[in-house]
Recover the amino acids of this structure.
């Protein structure tokens, strides 16, 4: 019996002969970021040889290439040679790819192509020179002025517009945060990183079953902190509220510390007490009046214990004080912020309604396609690292365990 | 767009008409011929992507799906993956058992009911020990090729949802249409949809057309069809009914049906009229419904002559002699 029957047989041979390589189409300029998912490279399209000679001066298009980290499952005792095997594409990678293939909206990152090569997945995305984390960081320097309200308005409007498109397609993003909101050089917002996004119509299982923890802690909605099993797209609107606050004050509004999983009991999701307390500091203790279903959440007991254990907790909503303290004076902007940061997800404003909020209809007019209009400053370009341009090799460790992993966090 | 079929890649990238489907399959046959001529693959004249093979593949999917206790929607997704894949890849260059296993594995992830790769492999190996490797990396490797062949368009819209929507719509608008689907009618339509994945219909028509076709058969042709599907009926008897059915669905359904149903009880006739009224009031493309109904009925005709062991042996001969 030939061994080929248990493999892909002659078909594999045929396909491998004709596959176009990433490097035949793109030139890698360096990498932008690395994370648990893998690594993002900056690249430019390779010009065809003819054109290269004719018009040397025309710059070729820029791309961001996201290479997914391979989940290697080589057993230590078998690790004589470093052959990386296929182990199955992760749920998150397959979601991101399949969703991005269907999506097409000016405020959602545009997928150009996906290349599968050498047991790796490469998502070729449009390149965005900026992201909100970097923009906020730039403005937080003492000598730089805050982001003008006009530009905040445009940014938030564009974010909401992208979020509305996702929600209309029954997709929630589940990881909105400044680092995932890209902005092009011409000021167009692109919601990126759909690695946690998923469809929410008719889930066959509780949303909790698939992913126990979603959304980066500072942007995580209170119903998630309360352990909600069936949450709604409102979780994305809470995150937009946090982002709006951060654009105004230039620092995270609820900067809690994440409670880590118990090493001995990885199945139990810890109650995020510190994060909840940060929210209470500004919004007050939630109660059955402003959040009727509060007592129905799985973490209600932990919540009660937390409240009982902290006698001097703020009981009233101090958001207005917070807003005044950071120098806010636009009433409509405050109202929008308050509508987004509602404890009760059922009362929180939807993307649909947020877009027609007074904040966007009053003067100055909302610029819907250029968030940088009138800014007489130039944001720095994305930093790229050129010490690893090897996009093809999978000789993992060196590439993924490097110390620059967190370089983009403040 | 993933919210509805009309803006989906299923419609924009993976919908064919009869001619383009034929062209695509012809291209594949030419490719297959070239590969045989160049010695890349051997020729196996008994391996053909015909209805028998498609019923066989459908049964493979159901078998493994049952073992893994997989939801119907995920199986339907796997069926479409197989159909799409085999538009571009020849049966003679692959191992269909591994293909079916991989399609189910990927479909479960896409439908948010992921199954562990080791479980999928071990259950598939229990069913087809001689064709499934114990090594998970072979399945994972096939996953790459499968999704690449589909150009990474993986999200699908199935007629099950349309069926439920139509049922709900009829309930909500009972005053207008005076028509409701009983739970047994719903179930019957649902099981017709399960079988519809053997055909090309999902590559040709929008999901609601298939849902309506399944209701059409359920309400209008149920009695006759049941006799075809049932194994207890004499074979001569079956053929007779089949011819009746095909002529019944050949032309404009509304006229034909009404005149052919004298023998049925009044109650049935009333229900059929109500359903036809519903179709015409909602501007459903009746030609598409008729074509779908016809394909489905043809399927059951062929199913009656289906011989599993022939396909099984042909595959065995090919795979063990490759």
């Amino acid at each position: 019996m030939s061994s080929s029957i248990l493999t892909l047989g002659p078909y594999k041979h045929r396909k491998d002969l004709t596959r176009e390589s990433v490097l035949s189409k793109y030139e890698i300029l360096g990498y932008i970021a690395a994370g648990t998912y893998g690594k993002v490279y900056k690249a430019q399209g390779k010009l065809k040889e003819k054109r290269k000679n004719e018009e040397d001066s025309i710059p070729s298009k820029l791309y961001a290439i996201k290479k997914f980290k391979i989940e290697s499952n080589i057993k230590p005792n078998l690790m004589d040679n470093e052959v990386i095997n296929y182990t199955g594409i992760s749920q998150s990678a397959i979601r991101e790819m399949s969703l991005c293939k269907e999506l097409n909206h000016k405020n959602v990152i545009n997928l150009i192509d996906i290349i599968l090569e050498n047991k790796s997945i490469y998502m070729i995305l449009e390149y965005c020179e900026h992201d909100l984390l970097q923009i906020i960081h730039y403005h937080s320097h003492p000598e730089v002025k805050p982001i003008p309200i006009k530009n905040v308005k445009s940014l938030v409007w564009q974010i909401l517009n992208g979020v509305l498109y996702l929600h209309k397609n029954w997709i929630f993003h589940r990881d909105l945060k400044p680092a995932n909101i890209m902005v092009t050089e011409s000021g167009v917002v692109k919601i990126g990183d759909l690695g946690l996004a998923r469809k929410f119509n008719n889930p066959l299982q509780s949303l909790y079953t698939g992913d126990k923890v979603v959304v980066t802690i500072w942007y995580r909605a209170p119903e998630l902190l309360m352990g909600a099993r069936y949450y709604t797209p409102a979780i994305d609107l809470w995150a937009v509220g946090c982002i709006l606050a951060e654009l105004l004050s230039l620092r995270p509004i609820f900067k809690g510390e994440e409670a880590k999983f118990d090493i001995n009991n990885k199945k139990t999701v810890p109650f995020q007490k510190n994060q909840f307390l940060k929210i209470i500091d500004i919004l007050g203790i939630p109660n059955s009046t402003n959040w009727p279903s509060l007592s129905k959440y799985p973490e209600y007991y932990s919540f009660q214990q937390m409240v009982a254990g902290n006698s001097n907790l703020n009981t009233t909503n101090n958001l207005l004080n917070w807003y005044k303290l950071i120098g806010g004076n636009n009433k409509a902007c405050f109202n929008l912020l308050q509508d987004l940061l509602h404890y009760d997800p059922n009362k929180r404003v939807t993307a649909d309604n947020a877009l027609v909020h007074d904040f966007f209809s009053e003067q100055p007019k909302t610029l819907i396609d250029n968030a940088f209009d009138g800014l007489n400053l130039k944001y720095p370009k994305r930093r790229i690292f050129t010490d690893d341009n090897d996009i093809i090799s999978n000789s993992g460790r060196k590439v993924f365990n490097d110390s620059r992993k967190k370089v983009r966090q403040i | 767009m993933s919210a509805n079929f009309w803006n989906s890649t299923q419609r924009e990238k993976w919908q064919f008409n009869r001619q383009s489907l034929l062209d695509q399959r012809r291209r594949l046959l030419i490719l297959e011929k070239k590969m045989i001529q160049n010695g890349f693959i051997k020729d196996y004249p008994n391996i053909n992507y015909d209805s028998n093979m498609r019923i066989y593949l459908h049964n493979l999917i159901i078998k493994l799906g049952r073992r893994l206790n997989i939801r119907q929607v995920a199986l339907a997704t796997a069926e479409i993956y197989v159909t799409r894949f085999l538009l571009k890849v020849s049966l003679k260059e692959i191992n269909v058992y591994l293909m079916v296993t991989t399609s189910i594995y990927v479909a479960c992830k896409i439908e948010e009911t992921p199954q562990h790769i080791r479980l999928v492999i071990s259950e598939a190996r229990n069913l087809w020990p001689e064709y499934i490797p114990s090594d998970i990396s072979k399945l994972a490797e096939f996953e790459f090729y499968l999704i690449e062949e589909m150009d990474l368009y993986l999200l699908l819209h199935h007629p099950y949802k349309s069926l439920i929507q139509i049922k709900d719509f009829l309930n909500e608008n009972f005053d207008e249409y005076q028509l409701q689907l009983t739970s047994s009618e719903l179930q019957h339509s649902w099981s017709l949809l399960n079988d519809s994945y053997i055909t090309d219909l999902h590559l040709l028509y929008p999901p609601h057309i298939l849902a309506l076709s399944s209701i059409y058969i359920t309400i209008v042709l149920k009695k006759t069809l049941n006799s075809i599907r049932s194994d207890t009926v004499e074979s001569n008897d079956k053929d007779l009914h089949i011819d009746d059915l095909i002529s019944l669905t050949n032309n404009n359904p509304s006229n034909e049906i009404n005149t052919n149903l004298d023998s049925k009880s009044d109650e049935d006739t009333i229900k059929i009229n109500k359903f036809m009224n519903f179709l015409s009031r909602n501007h459903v493309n009746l030609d598409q419904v008729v074509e779908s109904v016809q394909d489905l009925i043809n399927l059951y005709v062929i199913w009656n002559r289906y011989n599993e062991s022939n396909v099984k042996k042909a595959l065995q001969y090919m795979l063990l002699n490759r």
User: Anything to note?
Assistant: Confidence is low (pLDDT under 50) at residues 231-262 of chain B. Chain B has two domains: 5-155, 159-304. Residues 159-304 of chain B form a domain with the Cyclin A; domain 1 fold (CATH 1.10.472).
